[in-house]
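User: Could you check the structure of this?
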Amino acid sequence: MSTPLAAKIKRLIRATGPMSVGDYFAMCLSDPEHGYYRTREPFGTAGDFITAPEISQLFGEMLGIFMVHAWQQHGSPNDVRLVEIGPGRGTMMADMLRVISRLAPRLSDGMSIHLVETSERLRGLQRITLESHSRRIAWHRDFQEVPPGPALIVANELFDAIPIRQFVKTPQGFRERVVTLEDDDRLSFSLGVAGLDPALLPSPAESVPDGTIFEVAPARQSVMSTLCDRLKAMGGTALIIDYGHMVTGFGDTLQALRGHAYDPPLAHPGEADLTSHVDFEDLARIALGCGVHLNGGMRQGDFLRGLGLSERAAALAGGKSAADQKLIAAAVDRLAGEGAGKMGELFKVIAVSSPALDLAPFRPVA
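Assistant: Sure, the predicted structure tokens are below.
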């Protein structure tokens, strides 16, 4: 089945030739007319996927605890910007604000709240969710619009939605993977002429078989540099949570989700969420190169448990019915469970700060 965006992409390919995976990725999510985040409701059971904040209030509450701890380690400054990049429906921010208000009233009263969101449709949902805080919230289309000053920043499932480029091993070296048209007018993958600097490859690159894919993400590097440069200049901490791998390696991680099921990435452009795994080693290299302090990384399950997830879940379940207790236990397992396919293991967490801080739960246990 063709989609309006597929027709637009095909016209563009006929006019200008094959497009890179990165350009295809960007159009699928952000095309002004037919982009996924411009036209769809991605979150929840009626959408295409469920994020951690939608699973349970426990997730946002743990992040609120982390932000209070980071603020205290920074010396409890009076004028702080609490920033979320890609705030979804605003659910996580609402849960964070509730905890911050309870644990650190001075932080809650003195901070300003900033949401970085490019989608007008999602901004509308955020205004509904955060209606009681609306007078304190400023919305921005770009992170660099956030006013100067120390910042506590959170980015949950942000980097996976930033486009990647893909390169394929051939007998002549790595060549860029592109999207083109078959004779029957179907979108398909092919190889372009652009090569890849061998210095970017993990070793041993020579021994991997032909057809092996390597992914690079210059747009993600740029976003990470922007965050770190801000922290270096003005102070603060950024917490980054996403699904991905801690060590740079080979492999095709490009995937699409539609109706809570995997979908071929070229099948429904503009009507499926397009993502790929985040290379946390690469983000760490960028952070260290910018001169900020790196905390982590670790699995999401270890991170949440280190912040007191189990204890908070037990308190939340106290006095509840057996059915409610079962639901809370199931949410904890989804958020922090270990094993193949579970968020606690698939998702990774790092934090960067300036000046250097040793932030719990990243701090080594003696």
